Amino acid sequence: MKLVKNVFFLCLWLVLLPSPPAFAARAANCTVSSASGLSSPSAFTTERVALVIGNSNYTYQPLRNPVNDATDLAKKLRELGYEVISCQNLDRRNMHRALQQFRKRLRGRQLGLFFYAGHGAQYQSRSYLIPINANIEDAADLPIEAFEAGYVLTQMESAGNRVSVVILDACRNLPYRGVSRSNERGLARLDAIRGSLIAYATSPGKVAQDGRGRNSPYTTALLAEIDKPVTLTELFSNVAWAVASATQDRQEPWYSASPLPKITLAQASVPSPFKPDIPQQAPPAGSTPRALQVFRDTLSDGTRGPSMVVIPAGEFWMGSPSDEKGRDGDERRHRVKVSAFAMGRQEVTIREFRRFVIATGYRTDAEKNTGGKDGCYVAYKKSGNWEYG
Q: Most buried of 96, 183, 337, 384 (most Cβ within 10 A)?
């Protein structure tokens, strides 16, 4: 009976718990979707987050391909196991909101990827991404009306993720007369932060092509190369060569990077690069565990599981003492013997539990019985029945 009461109050607390404010200012024209199409989801699927933006519907000189580029790349990233925030045709305010949402979802993860397709320009050696409704009459309007590309790296650095990838398929042309009269063409080079790679659709100071097909030349090459199990630098070198070849060297992509671990953007059949250096291995199968031995199992995707400790075999009393106030009349106090087992040394975090749910498809009995509704079944004291709460 005590268990039923506890479950009741737990569910009541969950129902009344206010929603977290983290996504109160959600960006318009954006959708958030998790990994899809994976035959065996793993920890990889919860460690990588992407923000993909395509701006096409400009009042002055609209573009044909950016929304296609963003849509196709978002689909590919979901297939590769990323959580994706996919956005189309954003104004300046919603570009900032999307970036804030990205930072919040990225916090504590391992890899973040930012992709932008649309107009871009530079002013006073700073790069700007152009929102769809920007009112730009002169290059000096860029800091006021446009979105500074450097903010992306600032937000990713704040999130504390291990690796940051920024891909800018911008500067397809110079859309505003005041900017066109400036001597500064294309995008300026961004300063890489620790653990980052910044890829440009063309070399600094040059203009990229929008393309005549469904996608730009750069995104076409990126989509063809991104699922290959090569390192980041190899990937973007291959993309650059493919674009230069397709455009007869009229467009030469560029990238800059800080020192990076040997990782891939696609999930490869190799051990995860994020595996920590833990000397203790799991006890060999069939061996007798040593009391208080600490170890980490190697999981199916090559990563290590949580830190575990061996609890020795023993016995204990189960049930309330007979003199305990409020003791249920049907309780029977008895001795219980247990074999040695292992348990986590720290509490399970929300991120770890999310990894478990994605990998196994786990659902509680309460979730299974709600008929698709949000909430859970609770036991009502008067009737003793379980009903939807």
A: 96
Digit-by-digit pLDDT tens for the chain (389 residues) are 444 444 444 444 434 444 333 334 567 788 887 655 443 334 444 589 999 999 999 988 888 899 999 999 999 999 888 999 999 999 999 999 999 999 999 987 889 999 999 998 888 878 899 999 888 888 888 889 999 988 899 999 888 888 999 999 986 555 555 554 444 555 766 777 888 999 988 766 556 565 678 999 999 999 999 998 899 999 999 999 999 898 888 888 889 888 888 888 886 433 444 444 444 556 666 666 677 888 776 666 566 677 788 888 888 888 877 778 877 777 778 888 888 888 887 777 777 777 677 667 777 666 665 555 555 556 666 666 666 55
Nearest to 170 by CA among 251, 92, 103, 112: 251
Q: What is the DSSP letter of 363?
A: -
| Residue 366: closest CA among 376, 375, 355, 358 | 376
What DSSP character marks residue 248?
Answer: T
Domains with residue ranges and CATH for the chain: 20-257 (3.40.50.1460)
Residues 6+ apart with CB under 8 A from 384: none
Q: Please give the radius of gyration of the chain, using alpha carbons only, rounded to the nearest integer.
A: 27
Token reading at 312: 């020795």
| Residue 124, phi-psi category: left (phi > 0), alpha (psi -120 to 50), beta (remainder) | left
Query: With contact defined as beta carbons under 8 Å apart, do 220 and 244 qualify?
Result: no
The total of other beta-carbon atoms located within 10 Å of residue 233's CB is 13
In single-letter form, the type of residue at position 361 comes to G
